[in-house]
Amino acid sequence: MKTILVVDDEPEIIRVTRGYLEQAGFRVLTASNGIIALHTFRADKPDLVILDINLPTPEGSPPLDGLDVARAIRQTPGTAAATPIILLTARVDEIDRILGLELGADDYVTKPFSPRELVARVRAVLRRGRLLDEEPERIQVGDLVIDTAAYSVTRDNEAIELTPTEFTLLQNLAAAPGRVFSREQLLDTLGPDYEGLARTIDSHIKNLRAKIEPDPRRPELILTVFGRGYKFNEQQ
Question: What is the model's pTM?
Answer without folding.
Answer: 0.63
